[in-house]
């Protein structure tokens, strides 16, 4: 059974960029919270070449109903041509936490 909330996983070029965009999404009430997780080495294929980049991973907490709106907004402000924005459903969470997330998101 789904809790009705999700985590949205996103990578950013820097912690500063993640924090700035994360704060904006919380202020816009598209997310209840962002956790900036720290440095990550990303290895990926882009435009026919294998690339390497130092990035920062982040998790946004939002409702399932707002996840698509958040993903679209992140794509608008992110800065990457094709940002990794994935939605992970949260099956189980404490009721008080679920209520808090729902109360923070429009």
TrEMBL record:
Listed GO MF terms: copper ion binding
Q: Which GO terms describe its biological process?
A: response to metal ion
Highest taxon in the source lineage: Bacteria
PANTHER family linked to this entry: DIVALENT CATION TOLERANCE CUTA-RELATED (PTHR23419), FI09726P (PTHR23419:SF8)
Report the sequence similarity comment from the record.
Answer: Belongs to the CutA family.
What's this protein's name? Periplasmic divalent cation tolerance protein
Look up and give the organism this protein is from.
Sphingosinicella soli
